[in-house]
User: Fold this.
Amino acid sequence: MKVGVVSDTHRMKKSIDKAIEYLKDCDLILHAGDNFVDSKYINQVTGIDIIAVKGNCDYENVEEELTIEIENKTIFLCHGHKYNVKHGVDLLKKKAKDIGADIVVFGHTHIPYKDEEDSIFFINPGSTSIPRHVNYKSIVIMGINGDKLDVKDVKL
Assistant:
């Protein structure tokens, strides 16, 4: 399954439209918050199912975090601000272990990040709109096929 991962889109449609060019071949899209309303726009334009959570800049009455199953992988999706991700993934790691997550998808920092710790993959796609500490906007395309996980950074 091909899964697009986006975060921190911040209602900047020009940047979102650029990301959509890479997302249009995905089977599913995950949006890790800021701005939740953009997930609706992405769905309308692509017709692809999208699972989204709200971030610290969102005011919709929607979930702040979700645990989902994709291809026998447990994925924890959150924005990350409640897990102090600007200072590392320690709190996310604890949460992932507590719930048995294989993959953690988060945002908030606007910095692309991918790492594996204790057999848990941590993925932050960066920001489609306002990157920090890098000079490019970004998303992630994640391929899940059985036990194989292929995570590709996409610079927009």
Q: What stands out?
A: The helical segments are 13-23, 36-46, 90-99. The radius of gyration is 14 Å. The longest helix spans residues 13-23.
